[in-house]
């Protein structure tokens, strides 16, 4: 019995090493799982569910195959794939989760989320997030032809590219008081998230003197990163990329 959690793969056609590692994981490992949770930033950027490229089709197919084999798949939007929507869910059989979701894993309550909303000191990002999450704006954007949306995204990306360099690492990490608030609001002693690319298990005692655990998932930049949860516990593991992509 095991459940997998992954996030921050940043899948893109220009990184076939990551994509292959993901496909191998889906075919050989996820297929044995009780469930798979993708906690955001599966894609480097997702322009819309109308993406008909071979690349997008191949990723959708990986989920279709997994769901067809009886493995429930859950997906939380990240800051790079906040435009994954109901059409993607319908086409693949993946279930879209809310921004913050409470789940039960082998009797343990856990709050799961992408993690960007925990970084409350990154006020510039949060203001940007609020803008692009406006339902009316997404409604309009989703109706623009794909090739034009692609150009808009590239323009916004290049406009804001340098902004991240000016931020301190502290600003881009989670705010502890926000972590504790979200855990308290959801009455969970375990939190699982990604986004910060700082894989770790943080154990701490909250203001009510309760033992709490926050598990941060790793990214897939230099290796695959997987959280494996069993009824006996959990472990952050890595998966190697195939040698054939490296000299
Ligand atoms: O993922 P990572 O770690 O690299 O960076 C994130 C934050 N960056 C982002 C940016 C997105 O990936 C790029 C999005 C392009 C979107 C195009 C949208 C098209 C319109 C869609 C309409 C429905 O998420 C980064 C964080 C970092 O995580 C750590 O938490 O710091 O945040 C930024 O760098 C954002 C800047 O600070 C914000 C700059 C404001 C610019 C305002 C432009 C307004 C454009 C409005 C578009 C309609
Ligand atoms: Mn992210």
From TrEMBL:
* Keywords, sorted A to Z: Cell inner membrane, Cell membrane, Hydrolase, Lipid A biosynthesis, Lipid biosynthesis, Lipid metabolism, Manganese, Membrane, Metal-binding
Pathway annotation from the record:
Glycolipid biosynthesis; lipid IV(A) biosynthesis; lipid IV(A) from (3R)-3-hydroxytetradecanoyl-[acyl-carrier-protein] and UDP-N-acetyl-alpha-D-glucosamine: step 4/6
Identify the residues that bind substrate.
Answer: 79-80, 122, 164, 167, 195
Q: How does it sit in the membrane?
A: Peripheral membrane protein
Indicate whether Calcium appears among the record's keywords: no
* Entry EC no(s): 3.6.1.54
Enumerate the cofactors the protein uses: Mn(2+)
Extract the SUPFAM superfamilies matched here.
Answer: Metallo-dependent phosphatases
User: Where does the Calcineurin-like phosphoesterase domain lie?
Assistant: 1-199
Query: Which protein family is it in?
Result: Belongs to the LpxH family.
Protein name stated in the entry = UDP-2,3-diacylglucosamine hydrolase
Question: From what organism does this protein derive?
Answer: Vibrio fortis
Q: Which gene encodes it?
A: lpxH
